Amino acid sequence: MLEESLKWRAAYRPEDIRWPDVDVEAETGKMYRASFRDREGRTVVIMRPTKENTTSHDGQIRFLVYVLENAILSLPEGQEKMVWLIDFTGWTMAHATPIKTARESTSILQNYYPERLGIAFLFNPPKVFEAFYKAVKYFLDPRSIEKLNFVYLKDEESMKVLYKCIDPEVLPVDFGGRNNVAYNHEEYTKLMLKDDIKTSSFWSDDAKPVNRVANGNLVADVTPQSSLIAAKAS
């Protein structure tokens, strides 16, 4: 699996993706790294499928990879897994991800970022979601399925599972917590541009980023060292 991961990284070059490359995909806050961590200190990635704002298969895949790379590099020392918090409130079949995109997303997650997912919470999925889940489940390996937790705001027992992982004090109100935090694209953009510089430092041979200007923003270029991330992901 390590060899395949290295081949994929050499071809796709995920470490070269920068915020200006995916900014348009993030405008609605459909997927982003949360400002809080779970009780174990793991990075939390929030996803809101109802806020999908593009139809570009390549753009959506590129954005997913960017978020994964950013989440991994944001993990504290000693942690190698992340948490997904997926809000399905208000979801309908009109929000369903195209099968092609769902299949490639699953392939990337399982083949090139294996064992990076610690646990995932599917929050308030409606009945109609079951049909879509059955189709997507076909592409999931058993280990991934075991990490999925269906959580419902009105189901006290399922919420206990979520609270056991994430403190209600930091959990957003939308997910049954007490934190009034909300996604702000302008502020998140500033954070990601700073993270791009850190990413450049991580991947460069001499830890000295070289910058370029893209879309009016200062963006870091990199010299990749893909074997490190690929090895940890395998």
Automatic annotation (TrEMBL):
Name of the molecule in the record: CRAL-TRIO domain-containing protein
Pfam families tied to this protein: CRAL_TRIO
GO molecular function: phosphatidylinositol transfer activity
Originating species: Panicum hallii
Annotated PROSITE patterns: CRAL_TRIO
Domain CRAL-TRIO: from-to ranges: 21-183
Gene3D superfamilies registered for this protein in UniProt: CRAL-TRIO lipid binding domain
